[in-house]
Design goal:
Layout (H helix, E strand, L loop, with lengths): L1 E14 L3 E8 L3 E7 L20 E7 L8 E9 L8 H17 L7 H16 L6 H13 L12 E3 L4 E3 L9 H12 L11 H18 L9 H7 L2
Length: 237
C-alpha cells in the first residue's frame, strides 16, 4: 500500500557497505523499519544520508506491505529543516540521547497520533529555543504518559515516590526515592519546556536523570542504558 505520511527518524543502522536500515515513528502507522539500498551512493540524491540523522522529521511516501518485513521509501523530503540542532553541540547531544531512549522504549507498531504530535512539537521547540537544560528530563517524563506509566499524582503531597508502583506514599518503602529525590521529582512534574531552566543545579539534573532512567528500566522490558549517556553528562557537567 502506498502511504504518504510524516515520520520521525528514531535510528539508522549501516548495513553492509552502502545501505541503511532506518527505524521511524510514522504518523500513519506507528513504528516502521525501512531498507535504504545504496544510501551512500551519490546518485541517490532523493535519499540523502542527511535525512536519516537522529530525530529528523520527514515527509515520506513509502510502500507499506505490512508483512513484518522491511519497507521501502519511494520519496523523502524534510518536513522541517532544523535551524540550530545540528550546529549546537548541546542540542545535538540531547537529540542523540533521546533517540536512544525512544529506540529502547517505543515499540508500538500501530498509529499513535498523540505521541507523534507531542514529539514533533517538542523537537520544533528545541530547535527554536536556546534555554534547554531541562529539555531531556521533561521530555522523558512526558513520554511516560504515552508509554503507560506516568506517575499517579493522587497523593502527590506525600513525602516519598515509589518508583516501582508509580505512586506517592507517606511512608518510605524499599522502592521509594529519598525525601529530597521525591522533592526534585515533584518539581520536574510541574515543569514545562518554557519554564525557568535554572530551577535545578547540575547535580540535581544528574539525580533526576538517574531517577528517570531507573523508572524506565523498571517499567519497560528490555530497556537499556543509552550509549550516549556519558557524553550527555559531560555536556551538562
Amino acid at each position: 500500500m502506498l502511504v504518504k505520511t510524516k515520520a520521525i527518524v528514531i535510528s539508522s543502522l549501516k548495513y553492509q557497505e552502502k545501505s541503511l536500515i532506518v527505524k521511524c515513528l510514522t504518523l500513519s502507522d506507528g513504528l516502521k523499519s525501512y531498507f535504504v539500498p545504496n544510501a551512500f551512493a551519490a546518485k541517490k540524491s532523493n535519499q540523502k544520508i542527511a535525512y536519516f540523522q537522529p530525530l529528523s522529521i520527514l515527509e515520506i511516501e513509502a510502500n507499506h506491505k505490512n508483512k513484518g518485513t522491511l519497507e521501502y521509501f519511494k520519496e523523502i523530503k524534510l518536513a522541517h529543516a532544523y535551524q540550530t540542532i545540528s550546529m549546537n553541540i548541546v542540542k545535538s547531544t540531547i537529540v542523540i540521547f533521546l533517540s536512544e531512549i525512544m529506540h529502547h522504549s517505543i515499540h508500538e507498531e500501530e498509529k499513535n497520533e498523540k505521541l507523534f504530535d507531542f514529539l514533533e512539537s517538542a523537537l520544533l521547540w528545541l530547535d527554536a529555543h536556546d534555554e534547554m537544560a531541562n529539555f531531556h528530563l521533561i521530555l522523558m517524563l512526558e513520554m511516560t504518559k504515552f508509554l503507560g506509566f506516568y506517575p499517579d499524582n493522587t497523593e502527590i503531597d506525600s513525602k516519598f515516590f515509589d518508583i516501582k508502583e508509580g505512586t506517592f506514599s507517606a511512608f518510605q518503602g524499599t522502592n521509594c526515592l529519598s525525601e529530597h529525590g521525591t522533592f526534585l521529582f515533584k518539581k520536574l512534574i510541574d515543569l514545562k519546556f518554557d519554564s525557568d531552566q535554572k530551577v535545578f543545579t547540575g547535580i540535581e539534573r544528574q539525580m533526576l536523570l538517574k531517577i528517570l532512567l531507573d523508572y524506565y528500566f523498571i517499567h519497560l522490558d528490555g530497556f537499556k542504558k543509552p550509549k550516549s549517556l556519558d557524553v550527555l553528562k559531560e555536556v551538562f557537567a
